[in-house]
Amino acid sequence: MTSSSLGAPSPDGPASTMSLSQSQTVTFSPAQVRVDVTLARNAYRDIHPGYTRFTDQATLDQAWDLIIESADAQGGMSEADFYLAISETLALIRCDHTKAELSPSMKANRKTQTVYLPLRWTIVQNRGIIQDAPNNPQLKPGDEIITIDGRTIHDLQAALHRYIPVDGYNDHIRDGGMTASGELMGGAVDHFGSLLWDTLSTARLEIETSDGERRIVEIERVPFEDWETIATAKDAKNFKDAVTLTQVGKRGAVLSVDTFVNYRQPVDPDSLYGPVFEALASEGRDKLILDLRQNGGGSTDASQGLFSYLIDAPRQMKLVETFKTIDHDAYTNYISTWEQRAINPPRVAFKKTKAGEYQLRGVFSDATDTIKPAPTGFKGELIVLTSRNNSSGSTNLISAVRAARDVTLVGEKTGGNPAGTTAGTLFFLKLPESALKLRLPITRFTNNAGDVKDGIGLEPDVSAPDTVASLRQGRDPAMEAALAMIAD
Known about the structure:
The protein is built from 14 helices and 23 strands. The chain is α+β, with helices and mostly antiparallel strands.
């Protein structure tokens, strides 16, 4: 953590740019900062089962202390600076489910503040490429963003990567969180950047076309809801809308499952998977491309349901569900969750380990169930398409499938942790002085994944990443490689 990340003007932007925090009207006193930081530090230390899994305690203590010291030195801390400092510290834990939500007042402001670029764009090979710019004839898909308000893509990466949480050592996926995020209110460029720097309603983009022409384009920023309509227009938000099957030739097929999120509009997973795999069997299709590249995870039932159609013998996806503690008495006034029993769980449901942790007994855990093969399970040639979007539940599924049967991974290195994520039930820790709500996972899973490296995404067997050239040409390298492998 550096002083610039706590609200001073960033060296990565133009010298004339002031930190937005200097114009913030909400300021917390040093005493208020100390109260909230002390609570957050203690709660994560006591409850988070992966708190020191990838970062040592001394580093985390130093980061918490620095927030307090900065507030003391400055005579307080703005709401924006405090949120940034907390976010940066939580990112050090290296758990993608550990992050800070904006305060209620900050969320409300995002509905009217015009801080979002009205674009769908991505960073590939360290270059910003526009994918869609509706209603803006000056910008075309394939145009490269050279600078945003004078900041290069490298400048933005240097300033913002530190706030983006990842599982383990998967720093390669941080660019994916720069432009869009389903977990925060926008990608890091808008979500965090608008707190680091004054953000004018008009953005100044330096653009280079695929023909090499450079020009300056000024575009009007929009509030969050308008941005969300543009940036996530093509994304499946619920599992019920995420499953599609396409036949390929006489023997092949492509099955896309773009999310496992099945809690907002829940459906029985078999109601979607059953007809798909019945069709594969009845048509004699024995070559399947499973496209999970847009899938970041979601609900256990949706991933376990798919697993049942890909195995030929009963098998667990997850072996163990571990908790650091089941005693939350010191924090009951500050924590909430959708699973109320988790706050004061029955001790009979757990067995204590030699390390002093608690394992949930299998009879009480759906996540560690032994999955039975589905009657119409797929036993043919299986190819799974992977990307940096894979994390949490999707990486868990891929690692479990790979351990259970022959499969070829094609695409990009994943995010997530194939050994098992810190996820499951989350506590929401509300800090009393700032009203920030922090996500605090309480469960660490051990996957049935065989010999995998803890905290490192899965490498594809066949590397076929997107490139600037492929995006501009409208090509899909991973799908092309997979289709070539199943060609009749």
